[in-house]
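Feature request, filed as a ticket because there's no other form

It would be nice if the structure record came with a short human-readable summary line next to the tokens. Right now we just get the raw output. Example of a typical job, pasted below so the devs can see what we mean:
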Amino acid sequence: MARLFESPSIEEMYLRLISLWQHPEEIVLDSAEAPTSLDGMKGHLKGNDFRHRMMLMDTLGYLPDDILVKVDRAAMGVSLESRIPLLDHRIFEFAWSLPLSYKLHDGASKRVLRQVLYRHVPPALIERPKMGFGVPVARWLRGDLRDWAESLLSEERLRNDGFFNAKLLRKAWNDFLSGKREWHNQFWSILMFQAWHEVKNN
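Raw output as currently delivered:
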């Protein structure tokens, strides 16, 4: 958390918040930070309220690269063509035109949308705690998938493949297994690469 508050800019803080690894160049050998869709945004962000800047970064990065991808894959996995009506360009443009006080108010988000819903939906359904769609990756990696993960993350294999810092990854993996750190999302990305590399080379 301290590293977040040491960020030289809001943009850098945002990147640190969404990055899986705080120092990816230490994990991936002979690497540098890859360009992202956020790199070209800095000119558009100057002078805007930091909350608007964070919303814009989510709109250009997190929304298309994460949330919408998951929805599309989940729907197509069961042969459904999904639609996102709130992303209709007219609604989207209207939402962006609203003052910030209409979007955030007294610590609550989606103020205008909530007011519309209150006209048609019982408050008990609107004010429920958010129910996410989290996947139990940590439980899988410590349980049924542990042997599979161990085979892909063995120190010998990591050294032979030459992509990752074997010493750092093994320490992080042991910290994860012991419950000291919750590195499951970080390791899932690495395991996907390792599994792809294994298939590609067999």
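Something like this underneath would help us a lot:
The longest strand covers residues 104-105.
Residues 137-200 form one domain.
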